[in-house]
Amino acid sequence: GGSDNGDQLSFDLEPSNVQIEPGRAVFVRARLKPREIIWFGSKQERPYALAVQRSGVDPQSVEGTFVQRGFLPGWLATVLGMTLALAIAFVVIWLSYKPDVRSLATEQMTEVGAGKIPAPSPALSAPALVTPPEPSAEGKAPEPEEPADTGDSDGAGAGEKEKPAAGGGGGGGGEEKAEEKVELVGDLIVGVASGRCVTVPLKKGEARDGTGLELRDCDAGAPNQRWTFLADGTVRSMDMCMDVAWGSVEDGAQIQVAWCSGNPAQTIVRSPDRDLVNPQADKCVDADDHGTANGTKLLLWTCTGLDNQKWVVKTA
């Protein structure tokens, strides 16, 4: 039999019993196996003893040392450790990395802000020129009374002459501004399939940046249906440009009006086949879902040659 100090080895003897004739010798194969595997680390030495007993004689002990090595080589543990450390570092860097898109957002906000500055000025300047004559006429009414108390009739007459001059000048300026405001510029863009016009929806009577375009019954007197095709490739109405929302090139992107910025998304050209094409996306302005009713939205879509993508420019 066999034994070791910590009961960490198992012994397998082949054969376990043998009969030996006098003067003969027999070999016995002894196989030792560790009960636990050492995966990593240095080798370990385990002393053991085998007892050989002959019939009628005290057993004789044969001692030895079993050397157990690690199952995996030592350098592999180092490589695995370094690989794990690199993987953890990569995950930490990946999670902490945030792409900086603030510069693009700031640029868009700047364009919108700059575009809004001149837009309200015409609306504000018109009442500013029209309203002064009213208080000036009222303010000059008592002026003749002051010289009348002094007995100077010429002063009163001069005051009377100034009133119609001021009133005439103020009234004439107001009429000119009113005519300029009412003047309509541009043509109608009519859908071939619907017979309705491309329209800028108004909010409280004003066009707003980012408003999606739609189809409405044509009205030659509506400024929000008048469009001007300029040499720079833009199509303009209400002091804004026809625009593909967010500069998208994907099907379904909204066609809208936005403050003119020179962005490629605001280049809309007419093709010989009566399409309105955005060259950046190489796609057409499309009436959503082949719609023809009032309120049908306009989208960017792959050019199909169908009538819901055909447009006629008519002079009103």
Automatic annotation (TrEMBL):
<dbReference type="InterPro" id="IPR000772">
    <property type="entry name" value="Ricin_B_lectin"/>
</dbReference>
<keyword id="KW-0430">Lectin</keyword>
<feature type="transmembrane region" description="Helical">
    <location>
        <begin position="75"/>
        <end position="97"/>
    </location>
</feature>
<feature type="domain" description="Ricin B lectin">
    <location>
        <begin position="186"/>
        <end position="314"/>
    </location>
</feature>
<keyword id="KW-0472">Membrane</keyword>
<protein>
    <submittedName>
        <fullName>Ricin-type beta-trefoil lectin domain-containing protein</fullName>
    </submittedName>
</protein>
<keyword id="KW-0812">Transmembrane</keyword>
<feature type="region of interest" description="Disordered">
    <location>
        <begin position="114"/>
        <end position="178"/>
    </location>
</feature>
<dbReference type="Pfam" id="PF00652">
    <property type="entry name" value="Ricin_B_lectin"/>
</dbReference>
<dbReference type="InterPro" id="IPR035992">
    <property type="entry name" value="Ricin_B-like_lectins"/>
</dbReference>
<keyword id="KW-1133">Transmembrane helix</keyword>
<dbReference type="GO" id="GO:0030246">
    <property type="term" value="F:carbohydrate binding"/>
</dbReference>
